[in-house]
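Morning!

This is the sequence you dropped in the shared folder:
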Amino acid sequence: MLLVAHRRMLGRLLPADEPGDLVVHEGQFHRVVVGAERVVCLPRSDAAAARLPERAAVLRTLARLDLGFRTPVPLLAGEPGPDGPGFLVLSRVPGAPLDAAAVVGPGVGDAVTDAVAEQYAALLTGLAVAGGDAAVPAAEEDRWRRFAERVRAELYGLMSEAGRGRAERELAALDGLPYRADAVVHGDLGAENVMWTRAQDGLPRLGGVVDWDEVVIGDPAEDLAAVAASYGPEFAARVRAYGGWTRPEWDARIDAIRGTFALQQALAAHQDGDAEELADGLAGYR
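The structure's back. Tokens below.
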């Protein structure tokens, strides 16, 4: 168990927390140990460990932007040593994720659904406004072509014939995507990475956003696709209506990008040598 294996290190990094109060979250690139005021990110692979300094630099950049919500702030970094692996200590963003049942499930009132949708739209609008000023790397112009090439070269051999056929259809949908690099794009804006608190009126209030490992200046359709994947297309349509992203060309971009999420997970896991995440990403292709 992670908390036992790294007890000494975590005791030093989270001295105000009792071991029994710590919570572990499994992410694609890190295992995150959550304390009352701080979190400790432990990389799942050597490749993820090598990216920790870059991740800290990006988080410092985001902290300087006026996004209208909180992001984690790097507090301390460490190299691998006798006590444990490399790590990154971050400030804890307040709140907890809202799963689909709490936003669009049976018995959820329109006031809750609309409040969350409106705040998602404000979140994405803030990222779009920041896109012109943020010192964040831009997505490569041939990003999707190169992604498709890597999937075919590295993953097709791990798939069944039917799985390759499915992947080929999903990759073909990327061919006509226009290049856009005009907004800060989180890159993994699923429900698990958006934190919510409760206002005095009982409605959810956006606390902040975590897990910025894949942030780029790119196409905001990617984040809208993640919202649709978490809460369904009807909720995503509400978000789009609040934000004004209703023109038909948004539909094709959102649908095409959403169709690649499992392949994105599998390719990143394969390149990092993470067998568990690879198996999960390829589950529908074998």
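Headline: Strands lie at 23-26, 30-34, 38-43, 74-78, 87-91, 183-185, 194-198, 204-209, 216-218.

More detail when I'm at my desk.
O.
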